[in-house]
Write a structure and sequence with these properties.
The structure holds three protein chains of three kinds.
Chain A: E1 6-17, E2 20-32, E3 37-41, H1 48-56, E4 63-72, E5 75-76, H2 82-88, E6 93-96, H3 100-103, H4 110-119, H5 126-139, H6 145-149, H7 158-170, E7 176-180, H8 188-205, E8 208-213, H9 216-220, E9 225-230, E10 233-239, H10 240-245, H11 250-258, E11 306-309, E12 312-314
Parallel strand pairs in A: 3-8, 3-9, 6-7, 7-8
Antiparallel strand pairs in A: 1-2, 1-4, 4-5, 9-10, 10-12, 11-12
Helix pairs in contact in A: 4-5, 5-7, 7-8
Chain B: H1 27-35, H2 39-61, E1 83-84, E2 90-91, H3 102-138, H4 140-155, H5 158-169, H6 173-200, H7 203-210, H8 215-251, H9 263-274, H10 280-307
Antiparallel strand pairs in B: 1-2
Chain C: H1 2-30, H2 33-37, H3 44-54, H4 60-72, H5 86-121, H6 126-140, H7 143-157, E1 170-172, E2 175-177, H8 182-214, H9 218-225, H10 230-268, H11 273-282, H12 286-314, H13 316-322
Antiparallel strand pairs in C: 1-2
Helix pairs in contact in C: 1-12, 5-6, 5-8, 5-10, 5-12, 6-8, 7-8, 7-10, 8-10, 9-10, 10-11, 10-12, 11-12, 12-13
The chains are: A alpha/beta, B mainly alpha, C mainly alpha.
Chain lengths: 330, 313, 325
């Protein structure tokens, strides 16, 4: 059994604002094996994006990683000196952001922005760097790459820009790619294309990926494992089939039920009542308590992440039974 | 760890679920609290108030009226700070070339400088506000035309406009005020128009229009109050500019006549004595001017930070 | 691209034309044209002769026509004081003013941008706070007073630098420039510093505001995520984005600097157009005033044109939009 590529253990990232401290990531643990695709799912404000940034050390003030470990190939990234971390970024761990319009600098050409990514880690000639960029663009399916290199970001469509971002991410064949909602800003048809291409590229080069999204449907066909986050904590994690077919946490169940395509026509759409809590003001005990149909007095204490079955963990005092019937909405 | 659901079902809302929060402090209280949170701003405000009081009460509190020839003796000229006159009156800040007490001259000069600056500012504000509100309210071609004029006016440096106007109009306190008004009105117009435009698109103005309220009522009771915050900020900063500009013009010899000297003229008069070592004739009026302008700017800066809606989040 | 240039040129010509109208009617209608254009100490017979010579008894549109024709030929009347063509006097003094203005802008940019960027990157640090406090002083202090104090401290008390005047010059392409000589530089330093102070504060505040806005953008984060060195992120990604608003404002302010040189030239007795203008105003030498105004307007128009072109070069979005892509 090979050593896991990335082990995140009790990661904590807090934001110190004037209104108080927002515990965006509050004890998150998971791991990613080599070549594996992990789906990190949660609502807006669940802390999933901040988790991704924390791994790469890109959290902006007033946020700070205040606890935990992130072991990549056994090394704790959080304890690395800045220059070593810089060398890892973009070459061994890459990131793809959500909005491709804002990710590429609008006043610099595509070739500038791609070549600098190559030259930051490899001492090659500019011509060689340019050739690599051209190949990378061709690999993600961008036609006429030579001309495209000379263009500016605003001359590309959204889907194209995201392909460029993916191309940049794969330039150094990283071991891990963290993709933060990369298809959220795109049309549905383009979404499907990008998903397929990302999957192919990962399989071809053996790259592991953490795919962060709020959309279960996106990650269902893509990921090997699933990790559900709520209010800064992991509430359920396990193999994708196990979690999607037999969710044990009420929140996961609620998420699955809320996907519109699961509904029969004419039926009222299922929802999880209430709203995600503000990270400044988390309820004591289980964070999902105010919205949970199964809450009891016991839930005023914070449940731990228990391993119900090998590889399948749940943070709940009352995990759902495997054969719990689908609940009709009230 | 339990795989069986507890027997007791959940009941009602949880006790920690809060009820509505109280309304919080009023806008005025919030404004005062935010303003006074910065010690520098408090200091600046105190200094400014002192300056204003000096300017208003100058004739009463000055040891001497420096423009009453009977009180001034040429024998007292160019005495350094701390000296005494023949009659035993102390010259705290020394005397100038004609024997006038610098402290008194500065008090009177502050009065003139501040008076001219504030008056021109108020007039420019009234004119600019009317123009800006008109442009914003009526929109379309009226707006385009007015803003063209404003843009052209603003593309010329203030000092150039003032110089040319004074070259044509000549000397005198009224001409200075005219020049300063011409230089400033466009800033007010542009500021007011910008905030009025934002307000105009809001629904309550549409509602008021539907109710067929008169133009005047809509403008004065609805648009105007919301344009006040940026106007206050611009007004403060513009006044500082106006005072500085007037001082510059007076220094250049194109501004106020000698009979009503402002701080700029005092500094100009002292220029020739500087190279021979009587620095106080230019130095102290300069400090007074500086303190006035800096305190107004600091107050204006803090007002801008406090009143800026974007920072309120 | 060339369509853009032609369009802007035409606009400029229109503005120049409108300005000439304004200047002409300003001088001829607002004041008494007789006393505007004729020396104040002329007697009645001279006045009558001058009126006829200047065509002041002709209808106003004819007068304007002559004014325009003469202006296009470079004749804007003669100075009363020096009895030389006003335009020639102004042009003779122009290099000195431009040298001072460019030196001041240079100082403002070369000092202001790094200071502003630093203040934007570490806003809570002590140096940053000191820089911002300094910038408030910088634009509050009246320029002429700072000039006086600079002379007091550096020329009178310390004796390090000369107090007034322009230093030795070297002629480059027929234009006398003083910054190429050591003596010239020592004379240029204080006035340039003085003139730069206000703009320096402005540039610092602009650079800081721009930095604070840009530094939180996604593309900066993405640049870090690619593993670029912090130096490259700041010098390439950050700078290029803040240069756009900074250059625009600076370009428009250049005209202001040239105009404001009037004050510095007076304090330091620098022999430029501004000093000439002040003397002309004080001595009622109207043709010189008119000549100064026309030249300045022309300069502003040229500057605005250049700034527009620069803006489209720096911001590719504008350039491609103009080219109709």
């Amino acid at each position: 059994m090979s050593e896991p590529l990335l082990v995140v253990e009790e990661l904590q990232t807090h934001f110190h604002t004037r209104q108080g401290t927002a515990r965006a990531v509050d004890g998150v643990s998971f791991q990613v094996d080599q070549g594996q695709i992990l789906g990190l799912v949660g609502e807006s404000g669940s802390g999933k994006s901040v988790t991704g940034f924390s791994i790469l050390g890109l959290v902006d003030p007033p946020g700070r990683v205040v606890g935990g470990e992130v072991r990549f190939h056994g090394e704790n990234l959080l304890a690395l000196p800045p220059e070593r971390m810089r060398k890892l970024r973009g070459s061994r761990i890459a990131m793809i952001f959500q909005d491709p319009m804002m990710t590429l600098n609008p006043v610099l050409r595509i070739d500038t922005q791609m070549m600098e990514a190559v030259l930051a880690h490899d001492a090659v000639s500019r011509r060689a760097a340019r050739a690599r960029c051209r190949e990378a663009l061709a690999r993600v399916g961008i036609p006429a790459p030579e001309e495209r290199l000379k263009a500016y970001p605003h001359q590309f469509s959204g889907g194209m820009r995201q392909r460029v971002a993916i191309a940049i991410a794969f330039l150094h064949k990283p071991d891990l790619i963290i993709a933060d909602e990369p298809t959220t800003a795109l049309d549905v048809t383009i979404q499907a294309q990008i998903l397929a291409e990302a999957q192919d590229l990962c399989r071809d080069s053996g790259t592991a990926m953490i795919w962060i999204t709020h959309d279960l449907a996106v990650v269902a066909g893509l990921a090997d494992r699933l990790c559900v986050m709520y209010a800064g904590r992991v509430v359920e994690s396990g193999d994708i089939d196990a979690v999607l077919d037999h969710p044990r946490h009420p929140y996961t169940r609620g998420l699955i039920d809320s996907v519109p395509s699961r509904n029969r026509r004419g039926q009222t759409l299922a929802q999880i009542p209430g709203m995600a809590p503000s990270l400044l003001n988390l309820p004591s005990g289980c964070a999902f308590r105010p919205r949970c149909p199964q809450r009891t007095e016991r839930c005023k204490q914070a449940p731990a992440l228990d391993e119900l079955r090998p590889g399948h963990r749940v943070r709940c005092f009352h995990p759902l039974r495997i054969d719990t019937p689908v609940e009709s909405p009230a | 760890m339990s795989t069986i659901i507890d027997g007791k079902p959940a009941t009602g809302p949880l006790p920690e679920e809060s009820t509505e929060s109280p309304l919080g402090p009023s806008p005025l209280q919030r404004f005062l609290r935010d303003y006074f949170s910065n010690p520098v701003a408090i200091g600046a405000l105190l200094v400014l108030l002192t300056v204003i009081l000096i300017a208003v009460f100058a004739p009463t509190i000055s040891p001497q009226n420096p423009y009453d020839l009977g009180q001034v003796d040429i024998m007292d000229s160019r005495l350094p700070p701390g000296s005494e006159s023949m009659g035993g009156m102390p010259f705290w800040l020394g005397t100038d070339g004609a024997g006038r007490d610098m402290l008194s001259a500065i008090f009177y000069g502050l009065r003139t400088s501040l008076g001219v600056g504030v008056m021109s500012g108020v007039i420019a504000l009234l004119i600019g506000m009317s123009v800006g509100l008109t442009a914003a309210y009526f929109g379309g071609r009226v707006d385009n035309l007015i803003m063209r004029v404003v843009d052209v006016q603003l593309s010329f440096p203030a000092i150039l406009v003032a110089l040319i106007l004074l070259a044509v109009l000549g000397k005198g306190i009224d001409k200075i005020i005219v020049a300063l008004v011409v230089v400033q009105w466009a800033y007010y117009a542009r500021t007011v128009r910008a905030s009025a435009l934002v307000e105009r698109r809001r629904e309550y103005v549409e509602a008021a229009t539907c109710l067929a309220l008169s133009h005047r009522r809509i403008v004065f009771r609805h648009l105007l109050p919301n344009c006040l915050p940026p106007l206050i900020v611009v007004g403060t900063l513009q006044t500082a500019h106006a005072i500085a500009l007037e001082a510059t013009l007076s220094f250049l010899g194109i501004g106020l006549p000698i009979t009503e000297p402002s701080l700029g003229l005092l500094i100009s008069n002292g220029f020739e004595y500087m190279l021979s070592g009587s620095y106080w004739i230019s130095f102290f009026p300069g400090i007074a001017l500086l303190v006035t302008i800096v305190s107004i700017n600091l107050v204006g800066d803090q007002l801008r930070d406090v009143l800026n809606p974007r920072l309120e989040r | 691209m060339s369509a853009f240039i032609i369009r802007r040129l035409l606009q400029s010509v229109v503005v120049l034309f409108v300005m000439s109208l304004l200047v002409f009617f300003g001088v001829h209608v607002v004041g008494d044209p007789v006393y505007m254009l004729i020396a104040p100490d002329a007697d009645q017979a001279d006045i009558q002769a001058a009126i006829e010579a200047l065509g002041l008894d002709r209808p106003i549109y004819e007068q304007y026509w002559y004014f325009l024709v003469n202006a296009l030929q470079g004749d804007l009347g003669n100075s009363f004081i020096f009895s030389e063509p006003a335009l020639k006097l102004i042009l003779q003094r122009m290099p000195a003013t431009l040298e001072l203005a460019f030196a001041a802008m240079f100082i403002a940019v070369v000092l202001g941008i790094p200071l502003g960027v630093y203040a934007g990157l570490k806003p809570e640090s002590i140096p940053a706070r000191a820089i911002m406090a300094g910038s408030i002083l910088g634009f509050s202090l009246p320029t002429f007073w700072v000039g006086l104090m600079l002379i007091m401290v550096f020329a009178v008390m310390l004796g390090w630098l000369p107090s007034t005047g322009r230093g030795d010059t070297v002629a480059v392409l027929g234009v006398p420039l003083s910054f190429l000589t050591l003596d010239g530089l020592s004379h240029l330093l204080l006035p340039a510093l003085n003139l730069a102070l206000f703009k320096l504060s402005l540039v610092i505040r602009l650079a800081r505001a721009g930095t604070r806005e840009v530094v939180h953008q996604d593309y900066i984060k993405f640049a870090h995520a690619k593993g670029l060195s912090t130096r490259r992120v700041i010098l390439v990604h950050l700078m290029k984005n803040i240069m756009i608003p900074v250059v625009t404002v600076l370009g428009l302010e250049l005209g202001g600097v040239i105009a404001f040189a009037v004050v510095t030239e007076t304090v330091f007795a620098w022999p430029g157009m501004g000093k000439l203008l002040i003397e002309a105003i004080q001595q009622l030498d109207r043709p010189v005033v008119v000549a100064y105004l026309m030249i300045t307007v022309l300069m502003f128009i040229v500057i605005n044109l250049v700034v527009d072109l620069l803006y489209s070069v720096l911001d590719p979005r504008v350039r491609l939009k103009e080219a109709g892509q």
